Prior knowledge:
Layout lengths: L18 H19 L4 H5 L9 H20 L10 H4 L24 H20 L6 H30 L23 E3 L3 E5 L15 E5 L3 E3 L5 H9 L11 H10 L7 E4 L2 E6 L2 E4 L11 H10 L7 H8 L34 E7 L25 E4 L16 E3 L8 E2 L5
Amino acid sequence: xxxxxxxxxxxxxxxxxxxxxxxxxxxxxxxxxxxxxxxxxxxxxxxxxxxxxxxxxxxxxxxxxxxxxxxxxxxxxxxxxxxxxxxxxxxxxxxxxxxxxxxxxxxxxxxxxxxxxxxxxxxxxxxxxxxxxxxxxxxxxxxxxxxxxxxxxxxxxxxxxxxxxxxxxxxxxxxxxxxxxxxxxxxxxxxxxxxxxxxxxxxxxxxxxxxxxxxxxxxxxxxxxxxxxxxxxxxxxxxxxxxxxxxxxxxxxxxxxxxxxxxxxxxxxxxxxxxxxxxxxxxxxxxxxxxxxxxxxxxxxxxxxxxxxxxxxxxxxxxxxxxxxxxxxxxxxxxxxxxxxxxxxxxxxxxxxxxxxxxxxxxxxxxxxxxxxxxxxxxxxxxxxxxxxxxxxxxxxxxxxxxxxxxxxxxxxxxxxxxxxxxxxxxxx
Length: 429
């Protein structure tokens, strides 16, 4: 088993201008990654279950490669790579840095082993700690890249959980990643609607703390009258769609979505399994009965859109979602809770609920640049901008997201057929 010196705990997002804060933030984020990996065996860390997922071992190395490539090499003129082969093996998609080992074949790499990867992490961590301890001469641009690297690692912490969940689901023994804390029995919460803002409003990030470039520039949007559901769609509600033949009725599906349903033979959300007439779902705590009041999870954009049409509703736009979220406290069921699974809404609560945490919420908005968007120069500019094609925006974070990583303006994005992320549904009309 992998050991870690720290456990999951809330972390504060620190601005890059705080040098000592950045060093401490670096150490905590890196330890957080190890804590997430603690329940895993070396074998767990070596396997790749599908082309969209990566071995845990690769995530551990790639996030280290990021600091080595974009921080240490630029800050230390005499710096020599830990291993020149890693520049090829662990480059994800940065074409301006060099060639990359094929993504779909990352699971065939038996070397370097897990112990060697941790040695690599320790070596780079030592150099980064020295650099951030004595950084009076470091340019602000380099500190900004180091901060970007920490948020990049938090993204990969979430990917470790989603990828290992998919991997474990392929095992008929239904392995447990980590046991869940028993929940109090949930009660139903009716689907009520809250009026959203209308008229001309500004969206997008503004401020001094960290945000990704795709959250900017701030700009005005025009919103028509609309309402948003106060909570997420539940398993019980989605099950009604399933039992009404939703996956066999093309009238609810976009053409490409219907083609995908037919080709992939979908008949329920990912990880749902009907056994002896009873629906169960695979979780990071193993196979469990389908909890009716939990938010439905692991649905694609196609499924979310089809369900909304079946209900006589639609998905919110990202502008509608953001303007509702800025009036909501950024609190929820994040990775720090240790649940690793969405939890039911509180039926006694008032106002918008579950906006943050639990599941990423699909929006009706394609992932495109904001007016006036300009990617950063150089290889770092490949981080977001070049993916603005054939993707849809998700908002709010999930039970696998770190609380310090999310904000109302955060724009996640995935292809419309992606299901292995913790993605769910909020309705609009």
